[in-house]
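sorry for the late reply, my laptop died twice this morning and i had to redo everyting from scratch. anyway the thing you sent over, i finally got around to it. pasting the sequence first so we're on the same page, its 410 residues, then the predicted structure underneath. double check i copied it right bc i was rushing
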Amino acid sequence: MAGPLTGVKVLELATMVAAPSCARILSDMGAEVIKVEHPKGDGWRRSAIGFRAERFSDDESPVFDIYNSGKKHIAINLKTEKGMEAFHKLLAEADVFVTNTRPAGLKRLGIYYDDLKEKYPSLIYAIILGYGEKGPDADMPAFDVTAFWSKGGFLRDMAPLNENYAPVNAPSSVGDTACGYLLLAQICAALYSRKETGKGDFVRSGLYHNAVFMMGTMQIITQAPFGAKYPRSRADGGAPGGAFECADGEWIFIAMGGDPVVQEKIRKMLGHPHPWEDPRFATPELRAQNRREWYETFRAIFLQKTSTEWKALGQAADIPMSIMGHFADISEDEQAWANDYLERVTFRSGNTNVMPRSPLEMDSVGLPVTKCASYVGGDTVEVLRDLGYSEEEIAEMCASGAVATEKQSS
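ok and here's the structure:
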């Protein structure tokens, strides 16, 4: 089935997750994506293997494949004249260029937006930034752990405040992927606009900028006029909303606990007597004044039944409640399988793993399928042939180190 971006050519010069995740979904939509790697390969290949070194390898790298499925992989040394020549031939054919290389590095290579906009006026130049193009941190190396989770406030302020307080650990790749989604949306908008104007565009998505926007509620309410304070204790979380441990050691989470409609449903679920009948908690003001006792009352109640029992009661009462899952639960989750959010992929090693399916859901695309990414330089010869290079020229470029093939880079 031809996707909506069939015929669109994308050139990717990117490592790790943010920009590659964007390009992977462009591929799922039907675009032809050529990923340019250094002959040593994208550093995420090595990082992905490091997650489970005794199992993962070049023949089985699911953490790399999540973000690089469906692409052609060419290995080019951009510091060589012939390598840069081939790169410009790829740019000349591309509709979209996707990168997360730092601007300073791109400028040294002569391939920043300002260097290319006149030569390729219809090119959509899409870049992932760390801390933005200006300011004291502009040239700092950035990862989602630092620029998104850490500087954005999440790690410090979302950890529960108690006597053992410490910042929470950041999840891997989540901030990157969020930035990739925004870059994807801007690319699609730019492609739409180009159909009318014929002009390319310069689109950016920054890790820190996305953190500022996504943490926007907290950023606003912690300003001096509003005075909210973080980090907060669980008692400050607005019981009966929040996280509560159950009799089986698992936890549930109730959303919108401060909403009167939800509170009425919780009253009915709990029956009589319920905490609202206690004189200490008769009014919103008293509940705020005695919030620690208010929270402890609900904590004791939810410890009386298992998480599955509470889920059934919450579902019957139409309460926005969920059992708090573990990452390890997802691969066997009935809800995820029922909606095709997961798939089984067989790797070159012969092993089969459960993979998260591409989040793309379009009737015109159908069900996206994850394909194992090529080795470093796995498609170099094919891509160079398509650019018009002869076998002799390709051999010379390989011998000089301008490009590398799968065999050379392995």
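The mean pLDDT is 95.
thats about all i looked at so far, will dig more tmrw
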